[in-house]
Amino acid sequence: MVQCEMCGAETSSPKTIKVEGAELDVCDNCSDFGTEVKTQDDAGSTSTKYSTSSSSSGSSSSSSSTSSSSSQSRRSDMFDDMDELAQDYDDRIRNAREGTGMSQEDLADELNEKASLIRKLERGDVLPSDEVQRKLERELDIQLTAGGSGDDEDWSGGSSTGEYTLGDVVKRKD
Length: 174
Known about the structure:
Layout: E1 2-3, E2 10-11, E3 15-19, E4 22-26, E5 35-38, E6 49-51, H1 60-70, H2 89-100, H3 104-111, H4 115-123, H5 130-140, H6 151-154, H7 166-169
Antiparallel strand pairs: 1-2, 3-4, 3-5, 5-6
Helix pairs in contact: 3-4
């Protein structure tokens, strides 16, 4: 007999359920607290099916093997399409503001934001929201995303075989 991973009761036929992302082997009484995991018996299948029906599922070893093989191909998410904020966004904001001759208070008035926000952004204490980032880029005519410099695209190092060595990448400080 197996012990229920939720309540500790002894059960002869545990069910595998998913509760907030964790797969648990539970008794019949606790199976209502999650979504029952159904696994396909095909060896070539890489997906795990979830259902709220009360049919029995495979053993926990077969469900763990299918979930590990499905991690090989990562599903794209919303972060893949997002631009990454540049590391030196604070310097870019400060230099652009000083280049226009504006004070922090003047820039805050133009953006309809608080001057304390501009101070925190220029110190690098806070990250700009998407809306504030768009306002800053429009007002100061700057690019705050990491792809703004384009240094990687201009680089043409490497050997004729197409392989790069450490010497192609490192810049010496002599």
